[in-house]
Amino acid sequence: MQPNRFRFTDLIARKRDRGALTGDEIQAVVDAVTHKTVPDYQISAWLMAVFLNGMTADERTALTRAMTRSGRVLDHSHLHGSKADKHSTGGIGDKVSICLAPAVAACGVWVPMVSGRGLGHTGGTLDKLEAIPGLRTRLDVPEFTRVLEAAGFVMGGQSADIAPADKTLYALRDVTATVESLPLIASSIMSKKLAEGIDALVLDVKVGSGAFMKTLADARALATALVELGKGVGVATTAFLTDMDQPLGLAIGNANETAEAIDVLHGKGPADLIELTAILGGEMLRLGGVARDLDEGKAKIRASFADGSALARMKTMVELQGGDPTVCDDTSRLPRPAFRGELLATRSGVVTGFETAGLGYTIIALGGGRNTAEDVVHPEVGIDLLVKRGHVVKAGDPIAVVGARSADDLAMGLGRLRAQIHIGDTAAAEPPLILEVIH
Fold it and tell me: What is the domain-level CATH number for residue 366?
C-alpha cells in the first residue's frame, strides 16, 4: 500500500456525496482495513456512506477482488474432484450448513466451508457449531486443509490468512447498523467464498420479515449481483431465493439448532429444513458434476441421511476439530438452559405468522447473540417453536418453549415471544419454500 497516496477522509467524503471510487481507491480502502492504517471510526464512517449511497457494479467488483486478495487464496488442486460451497444471507433458525456440508461431502463433492458468526438479528454457523463441547472453528490453513482431506468437508471461521479485510469489516458492520447493504453483503460473501478455492457456489438468499432482504425485488437484486460476481471469476453459481417470513425448522438458538441439524443427519427433523437442505445440497452436486440434475442431487442428499454416510462424515469432522463426536448420537450432551418455560396460546385459532426478526432479537436479549463484538454468546439459551404457520391451536395449548439462564430472563423471553407469534381466525395461503432460482 502507498499510505500517502489517498487521504482516507477524501474517500469518505466522495461516498458521502454519492460519488464513485476508482479501482485504485477501493484497493486503498481495503489496504487500510487490512493493515489497520486508519482507525475504526473512519472505516465505520466509510461503511455508513456506502450503506446510505450504495456502490456501482464496478465498485462492487473492485471491492470483492480487493477483499479476496487481502489474504491467502486457498489451493485445493491436489484433491481430485469438484470443490463447492453454499452460503446463506442469514435467517432465523437457519442451520442448513451443519447438515448440508457432511451430506454433500458424503456424495463426492469437497466442501471447504468458511462460515461466519451471528450478524445483526441472525445467528451464525460458527456460534452454533461451537455449542459442541470442545469443537474449534479457529483453524489455520494447514489444519483447515487436513480436516478437509480427511472428512471431505471442513467448517471453520476466517483465519488471519483468508480475506482478513472482510473479517474486520464484518465485525464493524455488525455493530454500526450497516449490515443491510447490498454491495457490502455481496462483497463480504463472495470474497470469503472466492478465497476458499472453490469451483461452484450455491447461494440461499433469504426473503421476508426475518431476512436482511425484506422484499423479493431487493433479494433478486442481491442474488443477481452475487451470481454475476461468481460467474465473472469463473465460479459456477446458482442463487435460490427462499422464504424467511417464518423461522426455518423449529429451533432458534445455538445448541438447540445444532441438535436439530444433527436430527436431520439421522433422517429426522422438520420437513422444511430437510427439503431446503436437499435442494441446496442437490444443486451443489449438480454444479459439482456428480448429479445429472437437481432431482438426482436431492435424492442423493436424502440417501446420505438414510444410509448414515452423512452422519459418519459429521462425526469425523467434529472429532478432527476437537469436538466430542458422541454428541452426534446423543444431542443431550449439548449445553442445556438452567430455566425452561412454556408459552401458552391465549386464544384458539390458526397460527397466521411470526415477527421473525423479533425472534432473533429475543435470542440476543437472552444471551444467545451479540449486541457488541465483545459480547459472549451463551449457547444453551434458545426458543423451541411447537407450531408453524397454519397450525390450528386451542387456548392453553403450548406453542413454544423458552430456555434461559435465569428466572428473570425466562420471564422476559416469554413476554417478548408472546407478541411475536400471531394467532388469528384464518391463515393466508402458504408461500412456496423456493420463491425463485437465478442461474
Answer: 3.90.1170.30
